[in-house]
Specification:
alpha+beta, 3 domains, 14 helices, disordered C terminus
Length: 559
């Protein structure tokens, strides 16, 4: 064979040789078998190219935070958009993500909105999963709820109450502990609420849960075009919610006025309730239908103190165990109780404010100048006079048996003498007796190094602008009640406000009547009205509601 030619010195043993001559070819045959690609949730939605989306208007931004709420992982830009290939008139909501964790935020929101299909949840249309520009696209261009209550840039409390109810009655909001409008949107065509992507705003408005159920069957939502018509909103809300729930809602949007003063200065405000902020005349006080409201020291979650006990007579007992028990500054909060529960002061006042102002002859333009006491804080400031004794005392008495007692606040029905006595006397004392029957002497207190305090009273009042009063007036009219009477307050079981009138001023009128003409008297009345000092029986339901309280000018007016 030719390949052995020229070869030498080799041998072949027990081998099988195959000889192939000519060109060699390798043929590869590929057979395609049809197979099904595994479907994922992503395939249920349109994958939209970046160039197919046309953004027309930015409506807001959103922030995505980490677990600490201090580190922002990503942000979102929310815009109105049109999509190529869809109806030219159709508008979509486009949410674009940016930041170091943009893609993770995008996937998280995709999982959230693709996992549920419900008419009250913003419905997903498609997505763009490009790493540089991830985005979600939702059907329809809805309106963020948090922007709606601001009519012409001003908050509309009654519209807010309406939205609170809609959130409470709408899935998936009704099972949440509290509502934050950043995730709530309104369909401009139907007025229905939907849950959607979060949007950030400087006017973001938290809406707390309404605990009161509707009084009627569900009604179709208000159209968004009627939101600016306060009368229409009041009429709608009055048909679906009880009056006390509406009052509770609108009363939450009052302003706060605060003033700290001594008890001698504060007692007229505590005994009364309503005053003009710049004049400080006390002109009304609470009285009950069955009993008079009283002040009670209350616990708040931020004031919880296991050592504190409220006694039957209204005094407060605090058990002393260590000199560090008391901070340099601390306070107790007192509110009015009516019966066995806290008085809804704001709602109670608004329910009868029109009646009170009418009886006092106060013009509407001045109503927002009047403040009603909401609660007061009894403040304690630790003195330094016994610092040396605290460091050096070698007392043998057991300090754990010491109690600090804060004397009870007088009742609203108590006379001026009792209030003045309370205001001028010591507000607290120490005792070894848990019932507080025996007061500890001052020398014993000092020898034990027990702290002493100076005290102050922080009055916290509320006042409302005319829009709130007008809203309540419309509510009363919608229920066929006369705003100039106390019908609404009576129907809700609220305590009533008694007008405090100054006998000295009444005597001036009587003396004037005997020596002047009718024209002079009318002129004098007008002058009194201008100073907000004249009271009137006009609009009063009965003489029983107006009680005359003799008082000195010094007791009623704080200089």
């Amino acid at each position: 064979m030719s390949f052995f030619q020229g070869s030498s010195n080799f041998s072949i043993h027990e081998s099988h040789l195959s000889i192939v001559q000519g060109s060699q070819y390798n043929r590869v045959q590929i057979i395609h078998n049809k197979g099904k690609k595994k479907q994922t949730i992503w395939d249920d939605y349109e994958r939209v190219r970046t160039g197919d989306v046309y953004l027309t208007k930015v409506i807001g931004t959103g922030m995505i935070y980490g677990r600490s709420w201090r580190t922002m992982n990503a942000s979102s830009t929310i815009s109105i958009a049109r999509v190529r290939g869809e109806d030219k008139e159709a508008e979509f909501l486009h949410v674009g993500y940016s930041g170091p964790k943009a893609f993770e935020a995008f996937k998280q929101d995709f999982d959230r909105f693709s996992a549920v299909k419900h008419p009250n949840i913003y419905q997903l249309f498609g997505y763009n999963d490009r790493r540089g520009l991830p985005s979600l696209i939702f059907y329809d261009a809805l309106i963020p709820v948090e922007r709606v209550p601001f009519i012409n840039g001003k908050l509309s409390p009654i519209l807010t109450v309406y939205l609170e109810f809609q959130l409470y009655a709408t899935q998936p909001f009704k099972d949440e502990i509290a509502f934050v409008t950043s995730s709530a949107w309104i369909d401009p065509r139907s007025g229905a609420l939907r849950k959607g992507p979060d949007i950030q705003s400087s006017k973001q408005l938290p809406l707390p849960r309404l605990t009161t159920k509707s009084t009627t069957s569900s009604l179709a939502p208000l159209s968004i075009q009627t939101y600016s018509d306060t009368s229409a909103v009041v009429d709608y809300v009055s048909r679906i919610l009880p009056a006390d729930a509406i009052l509770w809602g609108v009363s939450s949007y009052g302003m706060i006025c605060e003033a700290e003063m001594s008890a001698v200065q504060a007692w007229p405000y505590l005994a009364g309730s309503l005053w003009k902020r710049d004049q400080k005349d006390i002109i009304v006080r609470w009285t009950g239908l069955t009993e008079t409201p009283r002040y009670v020291c209350v616990d708040r979650w931020w004031l919880k103190d296991e050592r504190k006990t409220v006694m039957e007579d209204g005094s407060v007992r605090i058990k002393f165990t260590d000199p560090t028990d008391f901070k340099d500054e601390w306070y107790l909060e007192y509110v009015l109780f009516y019966g066995n529960k806290e008085l809804a002061i704001k709602a109670s006042w608004l329910a009868q404010a029109h009646s009170v102002f009418t009886r006092l002859g106060i013009h509407k333009d001045e109503w927002e100048e009047y403040c009603i006491l909401g609660h007061f804080d009894f403040k304690f400031y630790r003195t330094k006079e016994n610092a040396y004794e605290q460091r050096n005392t070698d007392a043998t008495l057991d300090k754990s048996t010491g109690y600090l007692f804060i004397r009870p606040v007088p009742r609203l029905s108590d006379d001026e003498t009792i209030w003045m006595s309370w205001a001028e006397s010591a507000k607290y004392f120490w005792s070894f007796d848990p019932s507080g029957q025996e007061e500890m002497s001052e020398s014993t207190r000092k020898s034990l190094g027990l702290p002493s305090f100076t005290t102050g009273t922080l009055l916290v009042g509320r006042y409302w602008d005319l829009d709130i009063y007008n809203t309540v007036e419309q509510l009363q009219i919608s229920k066929n009640l006369d705003p100039k009477t106390t019908e609404l307050a009576r129907s809700l079981g609220y305590p009533l406000m008694q007008v405090v009138r100054d006998d000295n001023r009444l005597q001036e009128l009587e003396d004037l009547a005997s020596s002047t003409t009718i024209a002079d008297i009318l002129e004098f009345y007008n002058a009194l009205n201008a100073d907000n000092c004249c009271t009137s029986n006009e609009g009063s339901e009965s003489d029983e509601e107006i009680v005359l309280y003799p008082r000195s000018n010094g007791a009623a007016v704080v200089e």
